[in-house]
Amino acid sequence: MAEEAGMFRVHQTIGSVLCCKCGIPMTPNAANMCVKCLRSEVDITEGLQKHVIIMHCPECDSYLQPPKTWIKAQLESKELLTFCVKRLKNLNKVRLVHAEFVWTEPHSKRIKVKLRVQKEVLNGAILEQAYVVEYVQQDHMCESCSRVQANPDQWVASVQLRQHVSHRRTFFYLEQLILRHDAASRAIKIKQMDQGIDFFFANRSHGVKFVEFLGKVAPIRSRNDKQLVSHDPKSNNYNYKYTFSVEICPICREDLICLPPKVAASLGNLGPLVLCTKVTNSMVLLDPFTLRHCFMDADQYWRSPFTSLLSSRQLVEYIVLDVEIVSPEVNVGGSKYVLADAQVARMSDFGKNDKIFHIRTHLGHLLNPGDYALGYDLYGANSNDIQLDKYKGLVLPEAILIKKSYEEKRQRKRGKPRHWKLKSLNMEVDSTAKGRIDEDKMNKEYEEFLKDLEENPELRFNISLYRNKENQPSEMASMTDGEDVPSVPLEELLADLDLSDDENGDDSMRE
Amino acid sequence: MATRLQFENNCEVGVFSKLTNAYCLVAIGGSENFYSTFESELAGVIPVVKTSIAGTRIIGRLCAGNKNGLLLPHTTTDQELQHLRNSLPDHVVVQRIEERLSALGNCIACNDHVALAHTDLDRETEEMIADVLGVEVFRQTIAGNILVGSYCAFSNRGGLVHPHTSIEDLDELSTLLQVPLVAGTVNRGSEVIASGITVNDWTAFCGSDTTATELSVIESVFKLREAQPIAIVDEMRKSLIDTYV
């Protein structure tokens, strides 16, 4: 730059002067003292802490940051270094340039940190100095560990989830939902009970959060209570156990319901026989003969509760002989239905006698002659429902079809396992139960649930399905069948993250 | 021989005194200690005069002089001027000059033959300096500072300059001044040389904060040790022994 300006600049060599204290030659600096003399004159670490006491919990390997926070950190980790530097007071007077650990024996209960600081001294000279801070680690159990130690099964809040129906389909589905949203991450224990599940939490707020989550995914009503455990009269501290009793409404998908007259009237005279098609935090009730639908949320239901007439346990298989479409396609809340007249016969009758039913069904878009369907056999059923009696002059249809059956095709594919799998919650089975939980029944129901998942894509929406690496379908096989059993497309499957050993992995996976 | 002293607990003795080969000016302090130190060193040799300039005590920085003359700023009062004229020897020309930069001690550094001047000094002032002090004037900077009178102190035997002066600058100044120069500090690392030390050909006075190292540097560059009687005897002895084979 000087050359551009046309000036001639002489090259400047800095000479050396003698240090004013010790007389050794040095380059001049702002203080005109050599570094050693400057260091002996001025100690910038004066007034800084060199010795600090920190509390360490030996159970969970965490360190106390007063007044109440416990920070989990490994020895010689970044978090520990940050924590140690934070514990030093007065460090704002100097500038911290570098910090690192000096190795100490882990059992010595001493942590040494070497810090390098810079400070301005004596007319502008910046001096850098390194010093070591020693932390004495005192062992002190943190509150949560001491509580666990005192009583390992101690819970503070429990959520008792119940549904008074004879199957466990809802709980299978809820289990997958909970896993997907990680809602039970704070539960210290989960117990499977008859007709429900119990969740135990260490903190009331965790319980409340879980109940709120349930309220968003299922139609529930809940109440809560508390029980006094201990009481400190001096400081007026009361320790309670909180219990939340949550009941899910007993109406499930594919249930046939006869609405009580008042409810039917409030819903706009919806035909007393309705199907429940979808249950989230509100239910969708569909009248299969008029294709009218309505929504009913939890509050509405619990104001005047009713039970279902027939549930999916009582489904009977039919064969469809003829289908005649009556009305065009109607979109009911996202699903399509087509009203059709159908001639069906029960599988138990087919071939043996000529009993044919002429019924109206809402599944016109799915059924073709020769298909199999599942439905409720009202002709043969003996319903003991009070609500039905209230309707004088109500003509019951002989059968109501609910869904198409893929049983035949499934029989063909019996040998082949699924290429997807689900995870499950870590549940304790209540061994002291009255023995009503039957292993076989559970497995059958679970199989039904999995089939349900395969057939209904909207059910899979909120669930995480994982790819089963051992049972990948080969490319060739999928092209052979014409009409295939519905199965989960590969794009919907999540690649499973396998962090644990193989043994542990097997325990927690169910196929 | 260099002496360490303080003016009213302040180590900047070059601010409160002016020492030349023909006279010494001293500021008026609360106690007589400052004056008496100078007296004890210089009593019989040169007159030590107590004065103020422009009513202030910072006389070392306001005036510039050598054995031939003394230059005073325009702010000097008539009484002070007269007092100085009376007290100083007759061959010393006392002159008050009109100059915008009135701290002449900061702007002019001189010995009996050469003077360094502030780069912005007036032409007339430069002529006055050459006239009154009988010196050759060079406009210079020292280590990039234009206040040459503050950052260097030199006598007829040697000189001390600002510690950050580069070697090339040092050589250049040395050739101009025709005396050996050294870059160093005074008063424990202070870079303002002229305020920390006041010096003539045989003696020097510096602030009491001056370390032993600095003192030895000062004594060696200004050649003050040879002024000692012992040194003179040694030299004589050398010449005597010369004939002794």
TrEMBL record, chain A:
One of its GO terms (cellular component) is cytoplasm. It is found in: Cytoplasm; Nucleus. Belongs to the NMD3 family. GO terms for molecular function: ribosomal large subunit binding. InterPro entries: Nmd3, Nmd3_N, NMD_SH3, OB_NMD3. It holds the Pfam family NMD3. This is 60S ribosomal export protein NMD3. Residues 19-248 form the Nmd3 N-terminal domain. Acts as an adapter for the XPO1/CRM1-mediated export of the 60S ribosomal subunit. Keywords: Cytoplasm, Nucleus, Protein transport, Transport. The lineage of its organism: Eukaryota, Viridiplantae, Streptophyta, Embryophyta, Tracheophyta. One of its GO terms (biological process) is ribosomal large subunit export from nucleus. Residues 315-404 form the 60S ribosomal export protein NMD3 OB-fold domain. It comes from the Eukaryota. Residues 251-295 form the 60S ribosomal export protein NMD3 SH3 domain. The gene is LOC104605227.
TrEMBL record, chain B:
InterPro entries: eIF6. Belongs to the eIF-6 family. This is Eukaryotic translation initiation factor 6. The keyword tRNA processing does not apply. The lineage of its organism: Eukaryota, Viridiplantae, Streptophyta, Embryophyta, Tracheophyta. Its main location: cytoplasm. One of its GO terms (cellular component) is nucleolus. It comes from the Eukaryota. One of its GO terms (biological process) is cytosolic ribosome assembly. It is found in: Cytoplasm; Nucleus, Nucleolus. Gene3D superfamilies: L-arginine/glycine Amidinotransferase, Chain A (3.75.10.10). Keywords: Cytoplasm, Initiation factor, Nucleus, Protein biosynthesis, Ribosome biogenesis. Pfam families: eIF-6.
